[in-house]
Amino acid sequence: MSWIVRYLFALALSGTLVQSSNLPEVPPGVFNVSAQLELQTTTSAVWDALTNFPAYASWNPFVRAAIVVTPLNASLDEQYPVENRRLFLRTQTPPLPLPVNSDTPDNPLNTQLAYENITHVQPDLLRLAWAYAATPPDVLAGERWQAISDLGNGRVLYESREVFHGALAPTLRDLYGAGLQESFDAQAQGLKLLLEG
Ligand SMILES: *[C@@H]1O[C@H](CO)[C@@H](O)[C@H](O)[C@H]1NC(C)=O
Ligand SMILES: *[C@@H]1O[C@H](CO)[C@@H](O)[C@H](O)[C@H]1NC(C)=O
Ligand SMILES: *[C@@H]1O[C@H](CO)[C@@H](O)[C@H](O)[C@H]1NC(C)=O
Questions:
Q1: How far is residue 149's CA from residue 21's CA, in Å, rounded to a whole number?
Q2: Cα separations (Å) of 91 from 1, 11, 138, 184?
Q3: Binding site membership of 131 for ligand 3 (Cβ less than 6 Å)
Q4: Ligand 1 geometric centre to CA of 31 (Å)
Q5: How far apart are CA 171 and CA 44, in angstroms?
Q6: Where is the signal peptide (predicted)?
Q7: CA angle, 161 as apex, 173 and 112 as ends, to 5°?
Q8: pLDDT, tens digit, for every residue of 146-196?
Q9: pTM of the predicted model, to two decimals?
Q10: pLDDT band of 197, cuts 50, 70, 90
Q11: Measured from the CB, is residue 133 less than 6 Å from ligand 3?
Q12: Distance of CA 172 to the CA centre of its chain
C-alpha cells in the first residue's frame, strides 16, 4: 500500500469512528425514544453531570428527582449510580420548559413516579443505564441507556435511548411516546445549557 492509499484509508476509518454511536446494540422492542446532541465540553464534565443525581433538579427538565433508595424506598447516603441499586425517579412527560432550576415547580399533570434498577455504570466506556422495575418485564420493560463519546476538538456526543417491551408498551407509545421523545430531547438541551453556559 502506498502512503497515499494508507492515508486515505486512515481518514475514512477515522470518519467512521467519529460518527459511530457509543450506545450498545440491543434487541428491538415495541418502540423506542432516543436523543443525541453534540456539546462543546469534555466527556468528564458530561459524566459528572449525569452521575450527580442530587443536582438534576438544577438543570434537568425531564428527571426532576433521581434518588438512590433501598428496596423499601429509604434514601441512601451515597447518592450516585451503583449497579444493582434501586433508583426512584420523579419525571415530567412532556418536559418542563427550559431553563429550569432547583426551585422550578413540577407540572402536577405531567408528573410520573418510577422505580428503576441501576443496571450499568461504566465509567471506562462512558455509559450508564437503568431499567424500569415497577412491573414484571412481560407487562412493561425498558432500559434507558446514556452514552458519551469524545469527538475531538472540544466536542462531545451525548446520546440516550430507551427501547420499550411488553404488553403495555403499545399503550405507553400511544399515550406518552411523543411526550417521552420531547423529554429525551429536552434533557439533552438542558445538559447543553448547563455545560455550555
Ligand atoms: C428505534 O425505532 C426505529 C423506528 O422508529 C427503528 O428504526 C430503530 O431500529 C429502533 N432502534 C432500536 C434500538 O430498537
Ligand atoms: C419513595 O421515595 C420518594 C423519595 O423520597 C418519595 O417521593 C415517594 O413518594 C416514595 N414512594 C413511596 C411509595 O413511598
Ligand atoms: C430489579 O432488581 C431486582 C432485585 O435485584 C430483581 O428481582 C428484578 O428482576 C430487577 N428488575 C429489572 C427490570 O431488572
A1: 8
A2: 55, 43, 23, 11
A3: yes
A4: 7
A5: 37
A6: 1-20
A7: 55
A8: 999 999 999 999 999 999 999 999 999 999 999 999 999 999 999 999 999
A9: 0.89
A10: confident
A11: yes
A12: 18
Rounded to the nearest whole angstrom, what is the distance from the C-alpha of residue 91 to the centroid of ligand 2?
13
Q: How far from chain centre, in Å, is Cα 26?
A: 15
Whether the Cβ atoms of residue 145 and residue 24 lie closer than 8 Å to each other: yes
In this predicted structure, what is the pLDDT of residue 20?
A: 84
Query: Under CATH, what is the fold of the domain 28-196?
Result: Alpha-D-Glucose-1,6-Bisphosphate; Chain A, domain 4 (3.30.530)
CA nearest ligand 2 atom 10, residue: 73
